[in-house]
Amino acid sequence: MLMAVLVVLLVLLLTKAGFSQSNDRDDNKNVPIAVFCGTNAVISVPNFIKNRNSTYNDLRMQILSQRVLYARAQALSAGDSVFAAAQCRNYLSVDQCVACFDAGVSELVNCTSGNGASVSFDNCFLRYEDFADFYNNPYVSEDANITPNVLCGDQSASQPTVFNQVVDGFLSDLKDATPKTSNFFVASKRQIAGGNATVYVTAQCIANINQATCQTCMDRAYDKLNDCLPNREGRFF
Ligand SMILES: *[C@@H]1O[C@H](CO)[C@@H](O)[C@H](O)[C@H]1NC(C)=O
Ligand SMILES: *[C@@H]1O[C@H](CO)[C@@H](O)[C@H](O)[C@H]1NC(C)=O
Ligand SMILES: *[C@@H]1O[C@H](CO)[C@@H](O)[C@H](O)[C@H]1NC(C)=O
C-alpha cells in the first residue's frame, strides 16, 4: 500500500548539496519513487476518466490560484466518484509544485482499470480513491493491501558507528518534533561529530490529519529508517 505510506516522506540524505531544493536525483526531474494503481471496480471507464480529469483540473487550479501546496477535490457525477488529494513539500514554490503535480498526473495516466491510484515523488504526492476516508486517515485501506514503503540507499556511510549514532538521534528528534509543528513539516541538518559529513532530513505529514495520526506515521518511519542504517540514504512514506 504505497497509499498508506504517503502520509510522510522522510528523507535523509548525506550529501553536500542543499537539501531544500534537490534530492538524490539532484536535478528535480520528478522521477517517481513509487506508483500504485488500485483495483477497486470501475463501472464506466469513460465516466471515471471524466471524473478523474475533473478532480485533476480542480487540484491544479487550487494550487495555482490559491497558491497552496495541498489540495483536495472530488467529482461525483454519474457514479465512479473520484476523491483526490495532492501535496507538495513545503520547500517548493507553487510553480515547482505544479510541475510535480503534472508529473504525477502523467505517471497515473494508465491506471484506468481500477478506481484508485497514487504516486510519490521526493517533492510531492498525488492520490485518488473511490472513497474519501483517506483524507483524514491516510492509513485507511479500502483498496489493495497497501503497506508502508521504505527505500534504503545502497551506499554505506564511511564512518558507520558514529553515523548510526547521530542519525538515530536525529530521527528520534524528528519523530517527536514533526507532529508538534503547526504544519507537520520539518527540514533540518546535523553534522556527524568528528567527521566532515552532514545529514539532511525532511519530514512531512499530510495536511489536515490529526496529530496522533502524524505521530503514528513518524513512529513507523523512525523504526523503518533505522533499518536502513548505515546506508547514507533512506525514505519512508
Ligand atoms: C482527460 O484528460 C486527458 C489529458 O488532459 C485528455 O486527453 C482526455 O481527453 C480527457 N478525458 C476526458 C473524458 O475529459
Ligand atoms: C501508458 O501507456 C502507453 C501505451 O502503452 C505507454 O506508451 C506509456 O509509456 C504509458 N505511460 C506510463 C506513465 O506508464
Ligand atoms: C574528510 O573528507 C576528506 C575528503 O573527502 C577525507 O579524506 C577524510 O577522511 C574525511 N575525514 C573524516 C574524519 O571522515
Automatic annotation (TrEMBL):
It comes from the Eukaryota. Residues 1-20 form the signal peptide. Gene3D superfamilies: Gnk2 domain, C-X8-C-X2-C motif. The keyword Ion transport does not apply. One of its GO terms (cellular component) is plasma membrane. Its main location: other. Keywords: Cell junction, Disulfide bond, Host-virus interaction, Repeat, Signal. CDD domains: Gnk2-like. The keyword Repeat applies. InterPro entries: Cell2Cell_Antifungal, GNK2, GNK2_sf. It is a single-pass type I membrane protein. Residues 30-133, 145-237 form the Gnk2-homologous domain. It is found in: Cell junction, Plasmodesma; Cell membrane. Belongs to the cysteine-rich repeat secretory protein family. Plasmodesmata-located proteins (PDLD) subfamily. This is Putative gnk2-like domain-containing protein. It comes from Helianthus annuus.
